[in-house]
Design a protein that fits this description.
Elements lengths: L1 H10 L5 H14 L3 H25 L4 H20 L17 H36 L2 H37 L3 H28 L1 H8 L4 H15 L5 H13 L3 H27 L7 H19 L2
Length: 309
């Protein structure tokens, strides 16, 4: 509890930054600036990762430093996003709207899946932390901390694909251009396949190299990390596809599918499996939770993609 309070000290002052950054990113994507929205997310996420190392180990700030890196990373994302509104490419302006209630309902339905996807990272981390400390030890928790950072990078790279394709698909869906939607989806799917191969292969090939990027590991950590990370990395085979689907389906007016995907991978399946698997198959089964979760969700995504092509 004390550690959690230390971590949250710098974060509690900038909590509104997180929903506001998602709000701004949506405007940028629809104002022909998906690249800047992606850059904002990546800038904040990358600073968070390397800021953890600098503040926690370089400045010896401990868990407070991890929270400080997270807080500054969020602020960096906001600054990059806001820079669009003073750029020459900005075409957005404030105007009067009508039908507030109806439009608010549509916005909520279409955006809720992305919201669930974002907060799911925190939920997953919390569930895993509790189970790892119950069944394993602090060294395993340290390895999981690195896994969380790597997974954040994988998700952020896929967010970029989803956010780039969303306005393209939406515009063509409204115009009834099915061939253009199919073409955009094909490019998007090939991109997430490439991301899946790259990230899975990277973790499989150099797990201890990745560990050393983030910490000065003990010999025991180096012994247990390769097996743990290689098993968990199997989830990266399907994670990009599932994240991509969360952005794609609202663009073709199927927000309910995106919502099911977000809840399934973010809370429901992993929430059940993280308790059931180690109980039935032993402590190491914890590391199979996300590979199984992402695989099951990907099967559903594949079915929906084929049905609503």
């Amino acid at each position: 509890m004390v550690l959690a309070q230390e971590y949250l000290k710098p974060i509690k002052y900038i909590i509104p930054v997180y929903p506001f950054s998602q709000f701004l990113a949506a405007f940028l994507r629809n104002d022909h600036a998906p690249g800047r929205a992606t850059a904002a997310i990546l800038a904040g996420g990358i600073f968070n990762i390397f800021g953890d190392v600098f503040f926690v180990f370089g400045l010896n700030l401990g868990i407070y430093g991890a929270g400080l890196a997270t807080a500054i990373g969020g602020c960096i994302s906001i600054v990059v996003l806001l820079s669009h509104f003073v750029s020459k490419t900005n075409t957005l302006k404030i105007s009067k709207i009508y039908g507030h209630v109806h439009k608010m309902r549509l916005l909520t339905i279409n955006g809720f899946s992305s919201f669930i996807s974002d907060i799911a990272m925190g939920v997953i981390a919390m569930l895993f932390n509790r189970q790892i400390m119950h069944y394993l030890n602090s060294d395993a928790l340290a390895v999981f901390g690195i896994i969380v950072q790597v997974t954040t990078i994988v998700q952020c790279s896929t967010y970029g694909v989803g956010q780039a394709i969303q306005p393209i698909v939406s515009v063509n869906y409204g115009a009834g251009k099915k061939e253009r939607i199919k073409e955009a989806k094909t490019y998007g799917l090939w991109t997430v396949v490439l991301l899946s191969i790259v990230w899975t292969g990277l973790v499989m090939l150099i797990p201890n190299g990745i560990i050393r990027l983030f910490m000065s590991p003990t010999n025991h950590v180096l012994q247990i990390a390769p097996t743990i990370m290689r098993v968990y990395a199997l989830s990266y085979l399907f994670l990009p596809l599932n994240i991509f689907a969360i952005y794609y389906f609202p663009s073709v007016m199927k927000p309910n599918i995106a919502l099911i995907i977000s809840f399934a991978r973010g809370m429901v399946l992993c929430g059940i499996l993280v308790y059931v698997l180690p109980m039935l198959f032993g402590s190491f089964a914890i590391w199979w939770v996300m590979p199984i979760t992402e695989t099951l969700v990907a099967i559903y995504v594949g079915y929906c993609m084929s049905k609503y092509a």
